[in-house]
Specification:
The chain has three helices and no strands. With 87 residues, the chain is an all-alpha fold. The protein has one domain. The radius of gyration is 19 Å and the shape is rod-shaped.
């Protein structure tokens, strides 16, 4: 658990690391699931095709999540850099 401190940069650093790690895991998840979902089944082809739209929406939301986390990491990095430069 992240404890809040009187110095905001001490709270921002762990958030920066956590979000950076989650971006890596999200990218790995997208790569893995795109490989899994790109395969064609030997049986139940109609059912497999019905879930194609759900898989597409899931991948779009995953990429959006990566983008939003990257924006958050950018702003956290800028915040940490600004607070350490002002010392």
């Amino acid at each position: 658990m992240i404890k809040t401190s009187k110095e905001p940069a001490q709270t921002a650093r762990p958030l920066l690391l956590i979000n950076g790690g989650l971006i890596i895991f999200d990218i790995l998840w997208c790569i893995t699931m795109s490989n899994v979902w790109s395969g064609k089944p030997a049986a139940h082809e109609k059912v497999w095709h019905q879930f194609d739209n759900i898989r597409t929406v899931t991948m779009i939301l995953s990429v959006l999540n990566i983008f939003l986390r990257a924006v958050a990491v950018f702003f956290l990095f800028m915040f940490v850099k600004a607070t350490s430069a002002s010392r």
